[in-house]
Amino acid sequence: MSAEIVGYSFDDVPSDGFFYHETKKIVEIYFEDNGKQVVAEWDTRQYPCKLVIEKWTDALGRLDGVQKSMFHALSYHIGAVGLLLHAEYKNDRLELHINTTDDRYVTWVFISPEIRVELLG
């Protein structure tokens, strides 16, 4: 199921950069070639952009695999994003399924985040 976040789709999109600041509660994931703007149901356009997630009330992470681990503080499962596999936002909860650059599969959950997409110049 494709997930739309503020008019963009990020399923199976490789990342070109990553920024995380724990105390300021901000995550930025860069897509220099692959941010897909959803124009209509079957029409997308690709633009360089970054997905910004910030000001959450809680953030959790878990290691995925044969046996999924329990959710812990996000800092236990943070890593540079290599591929954003799936993103889903509903009920004020953002869930990201990620393959990190060190080849871990993790799930990140953000509660009540502010989410935006910024186009890169």
Task: Give keywords.
mainly beta; 121 residues; six-stranded antiparallel beta sheet; globular
Task: Please outline what is shown here.
Helix content is 0%, strand content 64%. By secondary structure, the protein is mostly beta strands. The strands form 2 sheets. Strands 1, 2, 4, 5, 6 and 12 form a 6-stranded antiparallel beta sheet that branches. Strands 3-9-10-11-7-8 form a 6-stranded antiparallel beta sheet, with no helix packed on it.
Terminus-to-terminus distance: 30 Å
Strand content: over 45%
Total number of beta strands: 12
Could you give a short account of the major beta sheet? 6 strands, antiparallel
Mean pLDDT: 85
What coarse outline follows from CA principal-axis ratios? globular
Rg, Cα atoms, Å:
14 Å
Listing every helix as H and every strand as E from the N terminus to the C terminus, the arrangement reads EEEEEEEEEEEE
Low-confidence runs: none
Summed up, the helix count is 0
* Percent of residues in helices: under 10%
Structural class of the helices, strands and pairings?
Answer: mainly beta
Structure description:
The protein is globular, with a radius of gyration of 14 Å. It is an all-beta fold and 121 residues long. The strands form two sheets. Strands 1, 2, 4, 5, 6 and 12 form a six-stranded antiparallel β-sheet that branches. The protein has a six-stranded antiparallel β-sheet with strand order 3-9-10-11-7-8, with no helix packed on it. It contains no helices and twelve strands.
